Amino acid sequence: MRLIGLVITLILTLSPLAGEAQQPGKVFRVGYLTVPSRETAQDVANAFKGGLRDLGLVEGQNIVVEYRFADGNVDRLPDLAAELVRLQVDVIVAGATPAVIAAKNATRTIPIVMFLPANPVGAGLVVSLARPDGNITGLTSTAGPEMYGKQLELLKDASPRITRIAVLVNHATSPFHTLGLRETEIAARALRLQQQVIEVPDPRELDKVFAALMRSRFDAIFVPSDPVLFQHRTRLVALAAKNRLPAMWGHKESAEAGGLMAYSTNTADLARRAATYVDKILKGAKPADLPVEQPTKFELVVNLKTAKVLGLTIPQSLLLRADEIIQ
Length: 327
Description:
The relative contact order is 0.14. Strands 7-6-8-9-10-11-12 form a 7-stranded mixed beta sheet, sandwiched between helices. Strands 2-1-3-4-5 form a 5-stranded parallel beta sheet, sandwiched between helices. It has 2 domains: 27-141 and 267-289, Response regulator (Rossmann fold), CATH 3.40.50; 146-264 and 299-326, Response regulator (Rossmann fold), CATH 3.40.50. The protein has 13 helices and 12 strands. It has helices at residues 2-20, 38-54, 77-86, 97-106, 146-158, 178-190, 206-215, 227-231, 233-242, 252-256, 267-282, 304-310, 316-321, and strands spanning 28-34, 63-69, 91-94, 112-114, 136-138, 164-170, 194-200, 220-223, 247-249, 261-264, 299-303, 324-326. The chain has 327 residues and is of the alpha/beta class. Helix 3 (77-86) packs across helix 4 and helix 5 packs parallel to helix 6. The longest helix is centred in the N-terminal third of the chain and has 19 residues, at 2-20. The protein is 43% helix and 17% strand.
């Protein structure tokens, strides 16, 4: 009798844990929506997949991920988001602000996990970071618009002689940079820089954009984190090198591709962490009850090879702060 009693007690003790587990045998369907092409953003998608796998969610076993890449064309996002809704996915994971907006406009009921918007409150995606409300939660890509000013300061530290700087943003995504661009204006005045925001109307015409920059005698560029320009980062880096323009980039991948320097969060890490939100939601959590997380670590990447080509000597104080130095 005592043995039977112990067994019953053990069953009752473990039963709440069983209730928290995902439904056995169920295959979940998750939508993944992002602006760049699959080729451009494959590492980020792989990081998300790895995050799922670490949590026991394995593609082909208990989860199916429907990937939708807009190939750098934000106009495709509404149709791709609507397609995911028709597939009745359990959760939609969306990258930068345009992708999250497209998902939000497509559904008010399917949970949405974001992982790249810089200012989700300002963009109207969530009511607040602590209490998102609605069906959206996830992670932001910056600690706030002041990030832009910090990036400009670092570029000036690396290249003290610059006096005129062009800030490049894509025409389709420029409204999402408004607060950050105000910070660059403040930073530029403090650094005694002449700054001008240049909207790129069509990334396919970057050669014309850079020709205009050189005619206007800009001597440096700053390209904040932008999902459309990220798609064209290789071309942008090549044009900056060709015209001998020191540049600050909003993605570490641009510095790794040959850009002078980048100061940013780790996009792949954010995607991996987004999997944690997906896991919680699939277990029954509501997006409104999951606070939005801000990044706590930012990475400074300096490309010394590019600095040498540009004739720059990066201060030792800056190198000591770098998380990665590319020789």
